[in-house]
Amino acid sequence: MMNETFNYIVLAWIALAAIVHVTMFFVTAPFGRHTTDKWGPTIDNRLGWFVMELPSLVIMVYFLLFGSRSLESYIWVLFLFWIGHYINRTIIYPLRIKPTEKRMPLMIALNAIFFNLMNAGLNGYFLSELALPSDYSAAWLSSPQFIIGAMLFVCGMAINMKSDAMLIALRRPGETGYRIPRGFLFDYISSPNLFGEIIEWAGFALMAWNLPALSFAIWTFANLVSRARNHHQWYHRTFPDYPKERRAVIPFLF
Q: Which helix (H) or strand (E) holds 44?
């Protein structure tokens, strides 16, 4: 595929992210605390997480091992950051979730599979077939762009994982309800786990400095800001004593 054609596809993908961002302020994704049976057949929640995140892991492992440029220069470093994140999201996180009666609509899982096929496909194809190895040389590893991006990625992933662990720990064995999370970044925002992911992929976009990586950062923001707003509103509806000073996803701002 020519670079120009590829770039047009990525730009169209970014435009779709903008549309989805606006739409999600009016439509609440029906999984987790927002689960409903109005969206058709459902599947086990943990199975749903595994199935919908798996394409991102498999596609990037494939491009790393079989791409024509993946092991030239230090492009493989970006693959490892991505794969590390999706090992957690695909395997570790679903195993940590406590079994509940809540299920995930199959439609949500299918939509997520489509997103991950496109997102990982665009990023993996660019890095393995179109990227210039000279852009990811040893000098790149010591550049401020890479160092700051890597720090953001690691910091965001740590925030995401710690926040997930705190949310999981809120439920005692056998419990199915929800409680107000407290401590850490939960004292400032309702969804620090989503805030962490936004930071992660902003860091990845900075490290990679290419259009597909930027598209993922934009999609992450588009998806998660509106989802965090929905969580924030749900907390206020559900708990009359929910802290009024907390923001939804960005400390002190939103």
A: strand 42-44
Helices and strands (H, E) in the chain, number of each type: 9, 2
- One-letter amino acid identity for 29? A
Mean pLDDT of 130-159: 96
Question: Is residue 79 a part of any domain in this protein?
Answer: yes
The string of DSSP letters for 50-80 reads: HHHHHHHHHHHHHHHHH-SSTTSTTHHHHHH
Q: Is residue 115 part of a domain?
A: yes
Q: How many domains does the chain have?
A: 1
Q: Does the pLDDT of residue 9 top 70, yes or no?
A: yes
- Give the span between the Cα atoms of 246 and 189, in whole angstroms: 5
Domain containing 111 equals 3-238
> Is the residue at 128 inside a domain?
yes
Distance separating alpha carbons of residues 72 and 75, to the nearest angstrom: 7
Task: Give the separation between CA 224 and CA 159, rounded to whole angstroms.
Answer: 15
Cβ(250)–Cβ(231) below 8 Å: no
Does the structure show a pLDDT above 70 at 220?
yes
Query: How large a percentage of the chain has pLDDT more than 90?
Result: 76
Give the pLDDT of residue 242: 96
Domain-located, residue 45: yes
Task: Tell me how many degrees the CA angle 218-16-148 measures, rounded to the nearest 5.
Answer: 10
Closest to 123 in 3D by CA, of 89, 71, 187, 75: 75
Contact between 46 and 94 under an 8 Å Cβ cutoff? The reply is yes
CA–CA gap between residue 100 and residue 80 (Å, rounded): 32
Instruction: Count other C-beta atoms under 10 Å from residue 89's C-beta.
Output: 22
